[in-house]
Amino acid sequence: NGSGKSTFLRTLLGMIRPAGGQVTRAPGLRVGYVPQKLHLDPSLPLSVARFLRLHRRLDAAAVEALLVRVGVPGLAERELATLSGGQFQRVLLARALTGSPQLLVLDEPTQGLDQPGTAGFYRLIEDVRRELGCAVLSVSHDLHVVMSASDRVICLNGHICCEGTPSVVSNAPEYRALFGLGTGGALALYQHHHDHGPEHPDHPHDHLEHEGCDHDH
Which residues of 159-184 are buried (b: 16+ CB within 10 A; e: fewer)? Predict the structure, then answer.
């Protein structure tokens, strides 16, 4: 926390002026952004459909198509204030997809979601990336997801501690000094191949030999 991750993203997006250096952006680059938090006045009457239309004209069919794409069909007329955390995150993703982005920027998109919700959201992101052929730039505290799903990792702690492929970063002395050996090497990642739902009581998942199973189910 406080290492500058969200500030870094907002600077790249042009929301904050850099204190030094410059941000070079490809002309016409289409960017979609899912913020870490979006504070809305709960007394403000704002439907999902109206929210999605704030920055882009969309007819009813286009709105519903977006909601179907992110797994929350039929929410167009629901008030934003009545949505669950998982539904709201998917609506934010739908908004980010309205312009068919070439770069999808995610700022801790699963914060506050439970494990099944987190797993489902990341699978959705992978589907979107594959379908659109877009790049994904994501900030996350979830080291297992970062190391298992990324092509390139940048470790920030007020500055760039280390960067490179997951295998390079996980073995970097700076990274191990911050996080220890528990996420080093091949990581022996939690192999969650599906959500932890009641329909899978005997789900397989592996842990490092010296780690306990201390995550929520």
Answer: eebbeeebeebbebeebbeeeeeebb
**Predicted TM-score of the model (pTM):** 0.77
Query: Considering just the CA atoms, what is the radius of gyration of the chain in Å?
Result: 19
User: 131: buried, middle or exposed (CB in 10 Å: 19+, 13-18, 0-12)?
Assistant: exposed
- Pairwise CA distance, residues 192 & 147, whole Å: 14
| Structure token pair of residue 23 | 């941000």
Q: How far apart are the first and last CA of the chain?
A: 24
Cα dihedral 8, 12, 17, 19 sign: positive
What is the rounded average pLDDT of the residues 26-36? 93
Distance CA(168)–CA(188), nearest Å, equals 15
Tokens of 145: 């997801």
Query: If pLDDT is split at 50, 70 and 90, which confidence band does 202 have?
Result: very low
- The order of strands in the sheet holding 135-139 is 31-34, 103-107, 135-139
